[in-house]
Amino acid sequence: MLNAHIKRRMVLLGAGALAVAAACSTERSSSDVVRTIYGPVRGKRRDTGIAFLGVPFARPPVGELRFAAPAPPAPWTETLDCTAYGPTAQRKPMGEVTTIPEPSIPGDAILSVNVFTPDPAARGLPVLVWIHGGGFVAGSPASPWYDGAAFNRDGVVVVSVGYRLGIDGFLHLEGAPDNRAVLDWVAALQWVRDNIASFGGDPAKVTVAGQSAGGGAVWALMATPSARGLFRAGICASGAVTQPNDLAAGLAVADLFTRRTGVPATAAALRALPENTVLDMQDKLQAPGPGSETVPMLGLAPFADGKLIPEATPAMLKNKAGGDIPLMLGFTRHEFNMAATMLAQNPGAAAASPIAQAGNGVDLDTYRAAYPGADATELAGQAISDTIIRGPSYQVAEARARLNQPTWLYEFVWTSTAPMFNGMAAHCLDLPFAFDLLRAPGVTEAEGAAPPQALADAMHAAWVSFIKDAAPGPNWPRYTLDKRQTMIWSDQSHLESDPFAQQRRIWN
Predict the structure, then answer these.
(1) I need a labelling partner for 268 at 20 to 30 A (CA). Which of 93, 148, 345, 471 fits?
(2) In this predicted model, what pLDDT tens digit does every residue of 351-361 receive, in sequence order?
(3) Identified catalytic residue from 104, 143, 160, 212
């Protein structure tokens, strides 16, 4: 059973939301209409600009296209109404309320983008392409935490991407291309290249960003040759950078799928199965098992297939993956510490969680020097957070600095006052600050009654600077091995030199 925090991260809110509305009235301004290369779309005017929601970048992945590479949309001539979010790949309810509100919207046309623009008539605006998280099996591009309003206010076009999840997106299947979700990300970036100028954006000034699994998507795209030239910079927030997995891991998950479900891991065997049946199989695949039979925590994830993605993360760290693409990356202080708290409170129920298991085998004595004053539960939680997110992200920064690749590292340490996360800088809590959306639905429940606007101002300004100039501003220098300067986001944000000196012997 996943701990409560992860369940909160993965649940589906708003499952009864409607798909794209019918054509709008002729009273709307013609300036709300933009012509893409596939046909005209009508957006929704707002105080900060216009939102074009559910714009298709590929055909619905159903029937023969279910496990195929994304196919270009069929052109249309009538104006397509894009004033409501389109269908999402996320489907199945998982339990309680999530940290990030993540609506699930029914329908087949899940391969769409949401474009938030200050003004379609503008020219040359920088572009943020956002890939949502959710462990590669959940999450929604329709979250109010991913709204582009504040970025629009500051002259940035935002594009959030829908993509295939779980088995449909990542399971190795005979008769289907590997890494289908990665193909979706590339197709969305190609759509941005071909269309974003019509929304006021500059296709040469694209920054691709994401959090958690979305941050892992950014890292995977660094290793994807077909994505080269489609973005000039990346932001990896609490990213799953242990992915891409290696080829053996991808094949092992497919083998485990067949042994657990009795169904061969082939496109022919799965293509005609109802969606709910495949989701039930996914649950069987991910259920805790004995010893090595347990699927890796992120087994349904990008892997080095030797074609689309040539290298797994260890090779990426050595071989200058991404070249000179600037990368901002970082993590929160207590990413998944809550898993240890849940384990202490209910060891029988939480012990099988892949999150909790991440800390197994860690010598906590080594953590006492790195985290003085922490009790046993806090040390166990820090071991989990360090193993899953913090240590791997630090290794990326170190490797890139060693190869002189432009890199900026941060740690988010501000702690929530909400009962759910009281005293923690937990996974996901940095996003409302980066997007400057402290009044968005669900923020008070996660952050507390009075999250500091000054911190949102500072973080958001750094993101805007990075998106505009491929650097976060003169007061935040690159991460280098001689100084290891790191931005510490807090009530009093500041630079620190080598803040992880005590952790380095654990993380390296």
Answers:
(1) 93
(2) 455 665 665 66
(3) 212
